[in-house]
Amino acid sequence: MKGYKFTCRNGRHIQVRFDGTNKWVSTGCKRIEDAIVWAERSLRHQEEERLESSVTLQEFSKDYFLRTDSRSIRRRNEYKNRYFSDGYYKAMEARLVNYILPEFGCLTLPLIKSLAIDEWYVELKKENGDDLSDDSKNKVLQCLSVIMDDAVRLGLIKENPCDKIEPMSVRSKTREAFSEDEMELMFPKEDDRAALAFGTLMWSCYFQVMKCTGFRPGEVSGLKRSNYYPELGGVYTTSSVNSPSRAVVNRIKTTGKGKPYKVGLLSSQCCRLLDMWLRLMPEGQEYLFMVDGKHIASSTSCKHFKTCAEKLGVSLEGRTQYSLRHTFQTAIAGEVERSTVEELMGHTRFRPGYDHRDGERRLRQLQGLRQTLENIV
Q1: How confident is the model at residue 171 (pLDDT cuts 50, 70, 90)?
Q2: Mean pLDDT value across the chain
Q3: How many Cα atoms occupy the beta-carbon half-sphere of 71 within 13 Å?
Q4: Phi, psi at residue 224, to the nearest 5°?
Q5: Coil/strand/helix, residue 46
Q6: What is the pLDDT of residues 195-205, one digit of tens each?
């Protein structure tokens, strides 16, 4: 019997000692045939653990984010309806190659510990020696965490060491609303000017809907003819376009939070422009907004908005098409009940970060309470 030997003392269970150790271990068996099976199984398990523990991060993560085979992270994401752009996977691979592998690539997976990750992560620097931004550091940590999660899934390590690392605290950039003057430049009152403000009638209708409803870009892109109710002057949808895949999905951002629909009222001008666009739309086209027969990704509409807004004389200063959503809530805040704001915005609660009213406007909206307060205070 190679690799181990047995002993049996005073009628107890047969014990085994494996080569290279001095410890006797009970097999839990009284028959020698069963003890042999137990010992052979233990040897195989030890060999598997030895092989697993010898896999380095470099070997395990070769082309990790670039592969497209059935076992790749990209395919597993797609099986779960999680779609990311090619740019996302290329950026993750770059973080792996530029930051993670130089530090941990030669280590076997079980040797990559939380303490080492934490000390390395907070000191990350760019190639020129400057500190990485906190947001970039978090993305590098996320990259490593995705890989280590996979190692846990495959049984190569017992836990993800990144789970014990607290991400850097990052202040999100405040999105600003557009002023009344800027909105008038982008959305003129005259129909003939408004129809071509964004280059074509289709694009002008696209942004008119966003301006009137506060819809997210994907929700506007997913609108069908049947979602538009001209007699009611509004739109209703439960679908949106997933930007990376440009596929229509039967959900919106808040579907999983108990709000599976989005509803919005349109201005008279927006309805007139939409009616005009419906008469010119290609026959048989089901969706209101498409480019070259394809659904519109948010990155495409964002670039178009930026180009046209600047041509119209609006200095964006970091603002995007999403700022129309902030402008919409700012316009209706204080004018309607909070529950109505939540309904129109598609939020599960009131979000003050979308409300950019200045002090004077807030005071004007409170004037109706003046007499009541005069009688109380």
Answers
A1: low
A2: 90
A3: 7
A4: -105, 170
A5: helix
A6: 999 999 999 99
Helix ranges restricted to H, 240-291: 268-280
First to last CA, the chain: 96
Query: Cα 245 from chain centroid?
Result: 13
Q: Pick 180-376's CATH classification: 3.40.50.150, 1.10.443.10, 3.30.70.370, 3.10.450.50.
A: 1.10.443.10
How many other C-beta atoms are found inside a 10 Å radius of the C-beta of residue 148?
Answer: 24
- Cα torsion angle, 82, 87, 88, 90, sign: positive
Q: What pTM value is reported for the model?
A: 0.61
Going by C-alpha positions, the residue among 353, 292, 364 that lies closest to residue 322 is 353
Distance CA 326, CA 58 (A): 45
Round to whole Å and give the CA distance between 287 and 250. Answer: 14
Q: Hey, is 241 helix, strand or coil?
A: strand
Q: The sheet that has 234-237: what strands, in order across it? A: 228-229, 234-237, 262-265
Find how far residue 273's CA is from the centre of its chain.
Answer: 33
Where are the strands (E) in 135-199, listed by range? none
> Which tens digit of pLDDT belongs to each residue from 82-130?
878 787 899 999 999 999 999 999 999 989 999 999 999 999 998 888 8
